[in-house]
């Protein structure tokens, strides 16, 4: 294993200058602030954060598409600003919802074309395209025009494009965005197999799906508003919450509950309610289990009948709530997009 | 057995350059022929404007070679359209489609990508131009009297190098202008039809106007080709064919060199300002 980190950033920052029209005064949007990361060779590293957190900006800098306004970044030991050509030989990138390639070409032709840009001889490229298409399950679509593909199949084509060139460091920016459950599972299992096979490969995955980060990543950095708030293995991040107790409660209630009385209960840390088909799902975090009786008392007072109650293990979502004070979707609803 | 074996020999240097040119030209060489509608839009429609000029010239009793001038001009229009819509504004569309980012992060030189676009566009348009000349010559009974095949090939090749060099150069500029590029391309279309003498000998505009128009490679290329393929061509020519060849060589060198430097400059600028990825991301 190499001692040089596969990816390293030092006080990395990026400020966008934005102006909607010529008359408007230019304003600044801080997308990244003092990001310090070190990703080791062989690691599957996750960057977890809501939309607009700065994940894509970071990926753009690391893939030489954008220069930082402060700090430095290295990929495979090369400075992304000073030696972009060396970085480009060693990387590839796949983004979720990508519409790259040409609709008039078939899947095979599109993939072949991109392989040419990496100097992969045609015979080798075609052999790998066939093999990878079989693994991801689109071998029967290789001769289909890419404009005729569904979103899921198109993303599988993009995934092959990224892996086809055998990059040393691969960047996957929300690779399962917009995919159905089955296609997402296929993509995740493909990613894991690719990583497991060669200890020299490194993968940086951005996602705002907690389950994806939890299932795939060796280490995760939680990012919000351009800052890295925590970075560790999913297990260790969750361990910080070992003193808290998490409950999921389903109640039958005619409308949303009044949250105020719950938040007044001593020992209750978070209380969130989500309307479901014919019930309300409550996510409750308590400092200790004994507080639950008071919560149940308040539920009864508000005429909410409990249909199911589960104690659950902490998730990365809970880690995020602990760090930011809000759930990820709540942040997304108010965030100014920096990505 | 490994499912994802490492790639032993990735090509680099001139081999990578060549592979990139071939790869990027492929969608135009092969893909563009798949939509059969091109025969109607790219051959039949241009022939309509050619026909209009032919009828005007015949109505006023112009020399019969003028009909040939118009047919050749109509064929060359296809190249100008291709340069304008498929070269100059192409990097902008590639950006919006998400391809540009993938080109930039690959080890392929961007000049090779642009050259691939040009080669592919040239090939696809050549098919259309040949079709226009063949059908136009047949319908309007054009007779050709080629004085020198070698000079004709040289003039055509140089015109194409200079023209696509101009397209490569403007591609970088249009990339920076983003959406404005569409309006600029629209703006550049009709005036060029006029000043390049697509449908009449450029000499008729007067020396200085024709000299100014010569910065567009089509002007001199078309003028020289007409001199070489029609009996009355030399008498209606703007400059001698030899002089026009020299100017075309100069234009080729200037445009291709400028394209190279502009591309590097614009790429640096775009990386600094974050303009290489599509607007929606």
Automatic annotation (TrEMBL), chain A:
Keywords, alphabetical:
ATP-binding, Nucleotide-binding, Transport
Give the superkingdom in one word. Answer: Bacteria
Q: Where is the signal peptide?
A: none
Name the Pfam families for this protein.
ABC_tran (PF00005), DrrA1-3_C (PF13732)
PROSITE patterns to which the protein is assigned, alphabetical = ABC_TRANSPORTER_2 (PS50893)
Q: Which Gene3D superfamilies match?
A: P-loop containing nucleotide triphosphate hydrolases
Molecular-function GO terms, alphabetical? ATP binding; ATP hydrolysis activity
Q: Where is the ABC transporter domain?
A: 7-250
Q: Which PANTHER family match?
A: ABC TRANSPORTER ATP-BINDING PROTEIN, ABC TRANSPORTER ATP-BINDING PROTEIN NATA
Identify its protein family: Belongs to the ABC transporter superfamily.
Give the protein name, as stated in the record: ABC transporter ATP-binding protein
The root-end lineage is: Bacteria, Bacillati, Chloroflexota, Anaerolineae, Anaerolineales
């Amino acid at each position: 294993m190499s001692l040089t980190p596969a990816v390293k950033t030092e006080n990395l920052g990026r400020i966008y200058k934005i102006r909607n029209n010529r008359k408007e005064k230019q304003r600044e949007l801080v997308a990244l602030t003092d990001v310090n990361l070190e990703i080791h060779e062989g690691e599957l590293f996750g960057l977890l954060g809501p939309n607009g957190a700065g994940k894509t900006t970071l990926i753009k800098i690391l893939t030489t598409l954008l220069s930082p306004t402060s700090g430095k970044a290295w990929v495979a030991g090369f400075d992304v600003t000073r030696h972009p050509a060396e970085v480009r030989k060693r990387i590839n990138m796949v983004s979720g919802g990508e519409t790259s390639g040409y609709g008039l070409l078939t899947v095979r032709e599109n993939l072949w074309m991109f392989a040419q840009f990496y100097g992969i001889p045609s015979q080798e490229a075609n052999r790998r395209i066939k093999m990878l298409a079989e693994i991801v399950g689109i071998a029967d679509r290789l001769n289909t025009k890419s404009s005729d593909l569904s979103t899921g199949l198109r993303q599988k084509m993009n995934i092959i494009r990224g892996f086809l060139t055998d990059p040393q460091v691969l960047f996957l920016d929300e690779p399962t965005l917009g995919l159905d459950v089955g296609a997402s599972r296929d993509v995740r299992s493909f990613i894991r197999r690719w990583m497991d096979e060669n200890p020299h490969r490194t993968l940086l995955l951005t996602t705002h799906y907690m389950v994806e980060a939890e299932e795939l990543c060796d280490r995760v950095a939680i990012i919000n508003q351009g800052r890295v708030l925590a970075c560790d293995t999913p297990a260790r991040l969750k361990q910080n919450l070992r003193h808290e107790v998490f409950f999921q409660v389903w109640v039958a209630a005619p409308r949303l509950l009044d949250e105020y009385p719950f938040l007044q209960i001593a020992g209750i840390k978070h209380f969130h309610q989500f309307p479901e088909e014919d019930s309300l799902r409550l996510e409750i975090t308590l400092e200790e289990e004994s507080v639950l009786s008071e919560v149940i008392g308040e539920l009864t007072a508000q005429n909410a009948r409990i249909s199911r109650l589960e104690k659950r293990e902490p998730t990365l979502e809970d880690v995020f709530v602990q760090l930011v004070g809000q759930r990820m979707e709540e942040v997304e609803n108010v965030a100014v997009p920096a990505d | 057995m490994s499912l994802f074996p490492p790639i032993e020999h990735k090509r680099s240097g001139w081999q990578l350059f060549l592979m990139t040119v071939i790869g990027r030209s492929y969608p135009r060489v092969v893909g563009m022929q798949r939509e059969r509608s091109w025969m109607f839009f790219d051959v039949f429609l241009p022939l309509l404007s050619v026909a209009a000029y032919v009828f005007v010239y015949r109505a006023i009793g112009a020399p019969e070679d003028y009909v040939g001038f118009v047919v050749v001009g109509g064929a060359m229009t296809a190249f100008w359209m291709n340069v304008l819509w498929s070269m100059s504004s192409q990097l902008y569309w590639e950006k919006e489609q998400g391809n540009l980012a993938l080109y930039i992060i690959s080890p392929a030189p961007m000049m090779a990508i642009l050259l691939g676009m040009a080669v592919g566009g040239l090939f696809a348009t050549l098919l259309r131009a040949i079709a226009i000349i063949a059908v136009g010559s047949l319908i309007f009974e054009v007779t050709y009297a080629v004085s020198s095949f070698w000079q004709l090939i040289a003039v055509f090749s140089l015109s194409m190098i200079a023209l696509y060099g101009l397209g490569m150069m403007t591609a970088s500029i249009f990339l920076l202008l983003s959406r404005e590029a569409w309006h600029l391309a629209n703006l550049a279309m009709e005036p060029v039809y006029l000043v390049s003498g697509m449908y009449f000998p450029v000499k008729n505009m007067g020396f200085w106007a024709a000299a100014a128009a010569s910065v567009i490679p089509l002007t001199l290329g078309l003028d020289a080709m007409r001199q070489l393929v029609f009996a009355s061509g030399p008498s209606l020519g703007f400059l001698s064919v030899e002089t026009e060849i020299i100017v075309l060589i100069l234009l080729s060198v200037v445009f291709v060199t400028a394209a190279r430097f502009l591309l590097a400059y614009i790429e640096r600028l775009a990386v600094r300002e974050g303009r290489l990825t599509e607007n929606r991301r």
